[in-house]
Amino acid sequence: MNIAVIGLGIIGGSFCKAFKLHTDHHIIGINRTPETAKKALEEGAIDEIGSAESLEKADVIFLCMYPQACVDFIKEHGGSIKKGAIVTDSSGIKRAICPQLEELSREFGFTFVGSHPMAGKEKNGFEASEARLYEGASFIITPCGAPREAVETLSQLALSIGFGQITLSTPEEHDRMIAFTSQLPHVLACAYVLSPSCPNHKGFSAGSYRDVSRVANINAKLWSELFLENREPLLEELIILANNVKNIIDAVNANDKKALTALLEQGHQVKQSLGE
């Protein structure tokens, strides 16, 4: 197939490299910055540098940009997409953009299937992309009313480049769970490193500091958009976290070892029960 990847950052670049490593599909790379597209071509991550006109021959299109930028791109270039092509996004939020992309799919005649690769790194840009980034990862699909054949095509594409499992979800369930599994840890990491003790951690820190602070190395512009587009589910999780922290604060403040032990044991039991 002809596969067009729009946006050659870490996510889009990794899709390109993975397709070139694992498949024989023809990869078209389109990027706002020409130098990045040229670099991708030179490194063999794509077969050609594309343009809006290239969309006419694409069987599958991966939108790998900021959420609203995906919508804006289709609004501008949807007329160039061939009828029946599959268009998917890679956004970390779904409720805010899936209805818009569904409506555009009806207007322009393509098939929209939402998706979200559950993989990434603290670094960004094409330089951080990897051919094996997605190996073993979960690929979330939000069908959004797409035909079963389109969902199956996208599922098989994901499995062919190393994803370990396909998870089907609604946009609502996706955003609720992502608030907990992805967004809340980023909030926690950023809040953690804002402590005045953080600059002096060297010599006093090991795995605990590394694990908690890792995702504080954040793309602030992107994650601000993700947080605000998903503010209701995220706020629910933040309130739960704040209440749990307050319970521990109260136990420590009261010098209540019994209450503190019970709270810590609750956390231990939950983690142990998951077998992780």
Fold and architecture overview:
By secondary structure, the protein is of the alpha/beta class. The chain folds into 2 domains: 2-169, Rossmann fold, CATH 3.40.50.720; 173-273, 6-phosphogluconate dehydrogenase C-terminal fold. It has 10 helices and 9 strands. It has helices at residues 10-22, 34-42, 67-77, 98-108, 148-160, 171-193, 207-213, 220-229, 231-253, 257-273; strands at 2-6, 26-30, 48-49, 60-63, 86-89, 111-112, 114-117, 138-142, 165-168. Strands 3-2-1-4-5-6 form a 6-stranded parallel sheet. A 3-stranded mixed sheet has the order 7-8-9, covered by helices on one side. Helix 6 (171-193) crosses helix 9 and helix 9 packs across helix 10 (257-273). The longest helix has 23 residues, at 171-193. It is elongated. The model has no long low-confidence stretch (mean pLDDT 96).
Please specify the SSE layout and strand pairing.
Blueprint: E1 2-6, H1 10-22, E2 26-30, H2 34-42, E3 48-49, E4 60-63, H3 67-77, E5 86-89, H4 98-108, E6 111-112, E7 114-117, E8 138-142, H5 148-160, E9 165-168, H6 171-193, H7 207-213, H8 220-229, H9 231-253, H10 257-273
Helix pairs in contact: 6-9, 9-10
Quick structural overview:
The chain is 50% helix and 13% strand. The protein is built from 10 helices and 9 strands.
Count up the helices.
10
The parts where pLDDT drops under 50 for at least 5 residues are none
Oligomer: single chain
Helix and strand pattern? EHEHEEHEHEEEHEHHHHH
**Total domain count:** 2
DSSP summary, beta strand count: 9
Question: Could you give the order of strands across the largest sheet?
Answer: 3-2-1-4-5-6
